[in-house]
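# nightly structure sweep
# worker-07 picked up a monomer target from the shared queue
# config: single-sequence mode, recycle default, output format = structure tokens
# input follows
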Amino acid sequence: MKQQHDLQSKASNHQDEKELGISMAPPQFKLTAGAEDTSGNAGGQRTSVEESVDSIAGGPQLEQVSNFGRMADEVVMAANKGDISGVMLSIEAIKHDQAEWNEFKTYFLSKKKIDLQTFLGGKLGNEMVVSLFRNLDADMSKIPAANVAALINESIAENNATAVMSLLIAYSSPKDIAAAYTATYPGQDMRTDLQAMCQKAPALKAFLENFYGDRRNHERVRVNSPAEATEARAIIARVYDVYGVDVNSQKVVDEVRKWTPDAPIELLKGVNTTAWTMSELRDLEFGLSKFAPIAGANRKNSIRASESQEVKTAGRLNHKLEKGSNENYRTKANVAGTYSPASQSFMILDGDPNLRNSGKTQKNAQGKEVKVQDGNRIVISHELAHGFMDYVLPEFRARMKLWARGKDYETKWDDIETPDGSTLMVRRVNSADEIPPTMVGLKNAGEDLAESVAMYFNNPMALKNGSAEYRKAIQFDDPQNGK
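# output follows
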């Protein structure tokens, strides 16, 4: 199984995670606590809405956001390879809203400085592209499903895979089209007819595997108003354009399933995308802003320019899988965030992020000091630190007396009750050492580094003086004393 770093409220076993990193110089830039900025609209994004965002009587509404920036780049890469199915799969994310299709063409022209049809015609052949645009430019919402089914049947007879794909994208509902096809041509089944055609058209086969599957090529965000919907689109665009991170939950789901290919199929199918909250998106952008000197376009001017960016994808999932002590897989539901260096992906999960609050307090309306609910920021900062900062881990371990002792010392564990009443498995420590700022950081040097970075950005005083967890932990003496 590929390595992942987990942030959880209670460890499931005592085994340390394997730490990555090679000996390199420390970062040659200053990590600054820049101002949070979620204002503005980066443009180039529309949404298809499952529920209206104009009415908030029923609580947050679900918004589906297409990332035009990513789509445009994917279209260019696929077209340069002559991959028509890749072009179609990228466009298929629109699923198909006529205004959104028109906006995507406008976006492509403004960002790539060339008309989309002209570009694709030059790469794929004009006749093929004319067929594609003829269908996608039509407003299929006004055409009965039976008529579209007839057009698909005609395209099958003509062995025109591009026409079939463009018609399916334009109408967007496989079930409606399949039902209309069977009703129009009794005794025939569209998927069967298409599968026969796929023998001669591999591009169509690749497209259909995606189109008929349970994949989601857009992000879902819970919003309370049209203004929040606009903000969500802008954040997703900026995260991609500024920091080089693709908010792409489906891609992360694919990666999670690859980590555990031998898991039972029902468990693999249970790992799915879920909807982002606005606070999670805001905190994602905030966390990435702290690593701006080595992310996105800035990276080429940093000492990390020769290395591939460590975090390229972010996703919102329900949970991940793990192997238990009996070597059987199970869902890991208490994890709030995970980073995978193998796939360069980071995810937010359904685990309670408030267990990871930084410890900061503020006065409420009654003047009482209450804990700041910033667990999302801690989770996100922590996991991003695993990616962006792991290259300094060897030097960090060597400089910290606690970790310089080696692995044997790192494997002594105790159950400790945290200030919020939960239980955490941690190592006993020698209080004479400079120990990590939180209990999670007591796990090993990699977790200590990630926690220290997270506290530096979110609660510097806790990093300097020790959090409540720190003070709880130092009651334990060196394991050799047996205390």
